[in-house]
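A.,

Following up on our hallway conversation. Structure tokens first:
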């Protein structure tokens, strides 16, 4: 079962530093930028006949009112329609007013994101009438946008957000994914038609595996959702290399302490429940 960790630990990884920025002496804030060329999405990515290449950018900005982190697997090469579509989606995901007029320079994007979120944190604390924060209780906010699957049919990203304001028992976070067609770059909508009784059997087994339990009774004891009316995840399922991934948000089916259940149903099992759009993308064979 996945453990909930603070964002600053979640993003700890080894990168090849290309350039770093830091605060000058006497500045109350500090920042750090790392860039790693040709990032691969771990072993989950199958070598695509049609090249889709990303670089990794990691940026942190710490000010007197908190810390902000961002990580991007940013498209740098591939079919133009796909690269453009993913870049525009990234902007709209990172910024509330993300538009095509924004820069395509990833270094400027990660800096702009952290600066914007720092301003939002400061305004939020001002509204809460909090003039200063301690180091141990400082606000944190961050986002990761990671490439998890790339092949000749589709590209899939996952987004992780974390936010902790202050004086709270725990922060808030969300985890979800989205898929783009490699044919024309369009972002897929719902890839599963609906949750019916037969599909729920497979979802239920996936939830048991996630919670490391074996019986329906144990599952009912954990879940707050009505298992006779199992909901779809808040964010729609999406395509990955081995099947369709269902990533439930916190509170979708269980209390916060149990995390955000994630399960993947293999293509040969889930195919009858897919939308025509998803079937057109994956084709007649497994991706």
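Then the amino acids I'd put at each of the 287 positions:
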């Amino acid at each position: 079962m996945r453990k909930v960790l603070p964002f600053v630990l979640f993003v700890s990884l080894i990168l090849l530093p290309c350039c770093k920025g830091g605060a000058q002496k006497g500045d109350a804030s500090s920042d750090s930028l790392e860039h790693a060329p040709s990032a691969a999405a771990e072993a989950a990515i199958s070598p695509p006949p049609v090249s889709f290449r990303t670089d990794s950018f990691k940026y942190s900005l710490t000010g007197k009112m908190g810390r902000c982190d961002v990580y991007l697997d940013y498209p740098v090469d591939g079919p133009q329609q796909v690269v453009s579509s993913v870049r525009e989606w990234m902007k709209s995901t990172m910024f509330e007013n993300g538009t095509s007029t924004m820069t395509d320079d990833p270094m400027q994007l990660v800096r702009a994101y952290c600066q914007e979120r720092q301003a939002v944190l400061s305004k939020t604390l001002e509204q809460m009438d909090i003039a200063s924060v301690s180091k141990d209780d400082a606000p944190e906010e961050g986002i990761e946008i990671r490439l998890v699957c790339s092949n000749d049919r589709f590209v899939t990203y996952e987004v992780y957000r974390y936010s902790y304001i202050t004086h709270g028992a725990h922060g808030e976070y969300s985890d979800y994914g989205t898929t783009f067609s490699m044919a024309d770059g369009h972002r897929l909508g719902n890839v599963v038609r609906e949750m019916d009784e037969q599909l729920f059997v497979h979802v239920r087994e996936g939830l048991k595996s996630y919670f490391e339990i074996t019986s329906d009774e144990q599952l009912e004891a954990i879940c707050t959702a009505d298992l006779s009316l199992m909901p779809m995840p808040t964010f729609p399922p999406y395509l990955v290399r081995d099947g369709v991934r269902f990533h439930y948000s916190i509170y979708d089916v269980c209390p916060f302490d149990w995390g955000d259940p994630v399960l993947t149903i293999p293509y040969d099992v889930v195919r009858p429940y897919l939308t025509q759009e998803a079937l057109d993308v994956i084709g007649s064979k497994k991706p």
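The first strand starts at residue 30 and ends at 39. Curious whether your intuition agrees with the design.

B.
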